[in-house]
Structures are given as C-alpha cells and as structure tokens.
Amino acid sequence: MLFIDKILTTLTFTFFGIEDTIWQQIDSSEKLRFRAMTFTVALLSCITFFGMFEFFMLLINQFYFAIIFGLLITIIIVNIIRFSIFTIQKPIYFDSNNVSTPRAESCVGALSTKVFGSLKNIWNKFISYFSIELFVRILINGILLLFIAFPFACFLSANTINQINNNKRIELIENFKKSEETRYRSKYDKLDFKINLLKNKINASGSTLFNSELKKEQNSRKQLIEEWQKVKKNNINQFENQISTKNFIILSYKTITNQNSFILSLLILGILLFLSHFQKHKLVNTITFKYFTLANKYYHELALKNYKNAESSIKKGLLKKYSNKVVYNKLMENYDKIIANSPYVNPPFNSIQKEIKSPVNQMTKAEFIKHYG
C-alpha cells in the first residue's frame, strides 16, 4: 500500500506540477484527494495508450511502431487533458485579505464563498456555469472523447475488427482476380477471333494456303497465353502481398459503432473525463482544501519578488550606465510617471484597475445665486 501511495505521489507531482514545499503543508485528506485525481488521470492515460496503440496498428500494422507512436500521441493527449483541467480558467490571483479562501475559478465559472440567499444571486450563480471556459472544455473533451473512444473500442473488440478487416481483404483480392480475368479475357478473345477468321477462310476456300499461317497463330496464342498467365499470377501475388497487412480504419470505425464495446468506451471515458474535472473543481473550490490557496500565495510572492528584483536590477544598471545624477534622476522621474499612469494598481499582475472618477465642477457662491436665484 505504501508503494502504491509513493507511485501515486510521484505521478501527482509529474501530472500536476505540485510544489513540494506546499505539499508538505497540506493534510492527509487533501493529499488523498490529489492521489485520487492522479489515479483517474493515470487510468485515463492507460486507456488512451491502448486506444492509440490500436489506432496505429490499424494505420500501419507494425507492432513496435504502434507502441512508440501510440506512446508519443498518448503523452500529447494527456497534456491536452491537463491543459483543459488546469489551464482553461479565469486568472488565479492571491487575495492577501482573505488567505483562507481560494479565488480560483473552476471550469464552471466563479463560485462565491458567500451563501446565495436571494433568488437573484442564485440565478447569477446558475448563469455563471455557462461560461466560455466551460464551452472550450466541452469542445476539447468532446473531441478527445471521440478520438480515443473509437480506437479503444476497436481494441476491446480486436477479434471482431480483425475478422472484418480479413473479410475485406479477401473481398478485395477476389475482386482483383475477377478484374484481371476480365482484362485478359478480352485479349484471349482477340486472339481467338483472328484464329477463327483464318479457319473460316480455309473452310470457305478449301485450300491449305492459310494452314501455315493458322499454325503460326495457334503457336503464338499458346505462347502469349502462357506469358499472360504468368503476368496475371504475378499481379495477383503482388496485390495479395500488398494488401495482406492493410487494415481499414473507416470500415473498422463504422463497424464498431454497432458494437457494445463502443458504448462502453464512451461511457468509461466520459466518466473519467468528467471525474477528473470534478475532482479538481472540489479541490479548488472547497474551503477545507488549502493547496491552491497556498499555491496562489506562493506564486504571488514569487512573482512579486522577481518583479522587485528585476526593477532593482534595472535601476542599478541605469545608475551604473548614467553616472550623471541629473540624467539618472530624470530617468527615474519618467519611470515613476509611467507607473503612476498605469491603469492598474497592482503591478506586475495588473488585475485590478484604478477607479477613475470624473471631476466634479464646484460652483462658486456667486454662480450658485445666479443659477438658482
């Protein structure tokens, strides 16, 4: 059990980029939640690999190539899934006035930590579910669902798919044999027509004048037929070799849609995709789980520290370059003006805009008397 926990913890760090210093600060129940989400994504990754392996087996029918390319595409798909789980959301900002409550937005939009007492707030909460983030997630996961489900269903019904492809190959070979037979039959008929024409001439004239020519044509026919038979047999063998390893993806997908394995694949993948998003949603939006709150604070402080260090480094560089204090002070004044004229109050995050108040024109006492007197 300890070994499994260690593996899941390692995968958790790999899948989700967990910070070890923050990981040590959360309790065991939250770690268990993360491991559960890791297990879901790991299971999804395994199913994706089997599906991609089957896809490349149908495409190129080479075992080792199917493993290599299947693994590469699986890594890409898993990263797309991670992207849809964690990245597609409104910005996450740390609120220093409310450390205990994460402000992260989940795939269903921002959920307020306050209790929605009024009908208006409940309605707003319901509407917030239908955000652009939700639409993008549904689109990406819907495409991935079908992209994985078809080949995975083929993997589950490998015997049926192999039989379908084998029957198709036999059908194509038989059709090719018939087409070759028809093509060479027309050549045989031309030779037979020429020979029959000579026979008719001999019968009509009663002469042996055309006997030598007839014999020559008959020998030529025999030789040509032998050559054509060899060519025809060689063409058929080449076609059989060419098609012996060929699979038919479209036919396989069309066939699998009528199988229970396809419904099962859609169901399993749909549950796993939904569960992975739901597990992350609970971790982000539940007050009792604090990893994302601590992570927000950590990244906020890290960004702020780097921003101040960069600012300090720039100022030191300018001071070193411009030894003239007057020039340096002028540069600093311009820099301060740029900062002051920024529409945001919280650089470098620039998430909170300044409140711009329209100036109020105050009347003098004389103007007031004149206007209202």
Question: Strands, helices and their partners?
Answer:
Layout: H1 2-16, H2 20-23, H3 28-59, H4 63-87, H5 119-128, H6 132-156, H7 158-205, H8 211-243, H9 249-256, H10 260-285, H11 291-321, H12 325-340, H13 365-372
Helix pairs in contact: 1-3, 3-4, 3-6, 3-10, 4-6, 6-10, 7-8
How would you briefly describe this protein structure?
By secondary structure, the chain is mainly α.
Class by helix and strand content? mainly alpha
Number of DSSP strands?
0
Task: Tell me the distance between the termini.
Answer: 89 Å
What would you call the quaternary organization? single chain
Average residue-wise pLDDT: 81
Radius of gyration: 39 Å
The major pleated sheet works out as: none
Number of helices: 13
> Which percent range fits the helix content?
over 70%
Structure in words:
The chain is mostly helical and 373 residues long. Helices cover 75% and strands 0% of the residues. It contains 13 helices and no strands. α3 (28-59) crosses α6 (132-156). It starts with a helix and ends with a helix. 17% of the residues are buried. Residues 91-116 have low confidence and may be disordered.
